[in-house]
Structure formats: C-alpha cells, structure tokens
Amino acid sequence: MHRVDPVGAGDAIRARVPDVLRTYQETRVNVIERGVVDADLKRLCARYLSGDPDVVTFEDGDRYDERERAALGWAQAIAWDPASADDELWMRLHRHFTEPELVELGYCMAIVHGQLRWMRALGVPPRHEDALGY
Amino acid sequence: MPRIAYYPVEIVEDPELRAILDHAARHGTPRPESQAIRAHAPATLRDFWWQWERTFRNGVCDHAIKELCRVYVSKTVECRYCGDQRSTRARDGGLVERDYDDLLEFERSNRYDERQRAALAYARAIAWSPEEADDALWERLHRHFSDEELVELGYFIAVTFGQQSWVRTLDIGHREVLDEGDEGLAPSAAWVGTR
Predict the structure, then answer these.
(1) Nearest 10 degrees: CA dihedral of B134, B128, B161, A83?
(2) Nearest Cα to B99, choosing from A53, A73, B90?
(3) What is the least distance, in Å, from the CA of A1 to any CA of chain B?
(4) Fold classification of B9-170 (topology level)
(5) Is ipTM strictly over 0.90?
(6) Which residues in chain B show pLDDT less than 70?
(7) Half-sphere exposure of A111 toward its Cβ, with a 13 Å CA cutoff?
(8) Which pTM was predicted?
(9) Mutation test of the interface with chain A: which of B66, B77, B135, B165, choosing the one with the most A Cβ atoms within 10 A?
(10) pLDDT at A76
C-alpha cells in the first residue's frame, strides 16, 4: 500500500504540458471513471484495445455475456475492422445499450485507443490491467 | 442514416452546451454532426470541446502542423467525413488546399519541409506502427520540436486518431444537422453532400 500513489509514466509525460495533463485528467474523471456505463465494462474494452490475450479471443467460449460481447465487437470495429460495424453489430449494440451509453462507451474507447497507441510509440505501454485511463 | 440518432440539439438549454453547439453550427469545426452525436452524453461533448480548444486550436505547437497531422490521420483511417473537415484557423495562417493533397506520400513530396515530415512520421507511428518510433525517428523529432511540443502534438494525434476511428463506425454525413453553411468544409465537400 502506497501512502500516496506514484504518478504513472503517462501522466509524467503529459505533465510536460499542463493543459494536456489537465485535459486528460478531466477526461479520466468525467468520462472514464464516471458516467452512465460502468467502469468495469470500460476496463474490459480497454484490455481488448491494449491487446490483452485473455480478451482478444472474446468470441471464443462463453466467458463474456452478450452485452460484453457486443461492446467488445464494437471495440474491434473501432480499432481494427470498421466494416464489422454492420447492421448486425448495431442491432446488438442497440439491444443492450441506450444511446447515451453508446456515445459514452464509444467516446471512451476512442480516447483509450489513441492514448494506448501514443504510449506504445513513447515506449511506455501500460500493463493490460492498467490500460483504462493510463 | 447515422447509427446513433442525432440528439435533438434544439432542446439543449444548458448555456455551455448551447455555446458549443452554436460554435459548431457557425464555424463548422468540430463538425456539428459529430457534436450532435456527443450531445447524448453531455460529458463527452464538453470533454471534446476542451480537447479541441486546448490541444488543437491552441497550445504550444503550431496549429498548422497539427492540422496536417489530423488530415493525414483522416486519410489513413479512411474517415471521409473527418477528412472533409478543414481548419479555418490553419487556412487563415496560410495553409492551402493543395497542402493536403500529398499527405499520404509526405516522405516523397517536396510540398512539406523537414519539420512537417517529422511530425507526419510521428503521426504515422502513433496511428499505425508504434515500432517505427525508433531512435532515428526520435532524433528527427527532437531536432525540430521541443519536448513540450512533442507531448502536445503526440497527445493531439492520439485524440484525433481515436475519435476518427470511432466516428467512422457511425455513418454520419455532412449537412445532416445544424447546417449553417460550408464553413469548415473542404472545397470538394462544400457543394456536394458527402459521407
């Protein structure tokens, strides 16, 4: 147990530009940690986006429920395969999520996806379990 | 039709959100349709506004470089909706439409200087091949940019890459909501509605 949590590598880099650190901290609080979609689902999608081998095979087996599989299918479309965001995927998404939930989840995945790519280019990729809001 | 219905923006009363939407309608950047989607979740509409204001329109790195990187990302993500958007601030600063034409061949084109090429290589590495961010690329980047500029530029590229990757799944098109003219659109999109 740390008495004060250390600053992660991502924030240590963002801190070079106070407006960048401030903006991302606001995103982390207002969109990633709070909101209408539970953070556990966002964390699961972040693990997919970070390439966690336990999650990228989400379509195999029955480890994840239908709601989680719809969200992970969208993560796959956003990150790798936009053509897979077809009528069938959108029907599943609308079955399990309200429109405010879809917007918040999609926006959150977009932010996380971009930050993970930048962190990889910087040589400081997070552990899969820390991928959300790194 | 968009995959998520546009929020009925005419009912928005919150002054901050109203101002964000009015800005999109008048200036065309960020585009009003993507903002009308974000309006379903007000925190995302506010958040994107501040991402855009602090790390794209303003900041420590010159705006025109960030605009070139944004459109480079559009062309590689193949989000035509995003790629038909133009920064009026960059245009007022001297960027012309032909400056966008060679972005996919930026390493070979003589339209870009060494600083612009280094920034575009940074964008390519972040979006598509982080393994390309090797010692040689970082040496190029540090030759032309301060650490602060590299942080802001990299952060913005990450934000716009993520947003465009998301927006391309939504099937939204120009002039579908809050249509007050062609401001913020590429000439090729200004007269013919495009998706």
Answers:
(1) -170
(2) B90
(3) 31
(4) AhpD-like (1.20.1290)
(5) yes
(6) 190-195
(7) 27
(8) 0.95
(9) B165
(10) 98
DSSP string for B79-110: -HHHHTB--HHHHHTT--GGGGTTGGGTTT-T
A35 class by beta-carbon count within 10 Å (0-12 exposed, 13-18 middle, 19+ buried): buried
* CA separation, residue A58 to residues A26, A61, A69, A76, B30 (Å): 30, 7, 7, 10, 34
CATH 1.20.1290.10 is the classification of domain A9-133: yes
Domain locations in chain A? Answer: 9-133
Q: Is B47 in CB contact (< 8 Å) with chain A?
A: yes
pLDDT in tens, B26-46: 998 899 999 999 999 999 999
Q: Within chain A, which residues score under 70 in pLDDT? A: 1-2
pLDDT for the residue numbered A72: 98
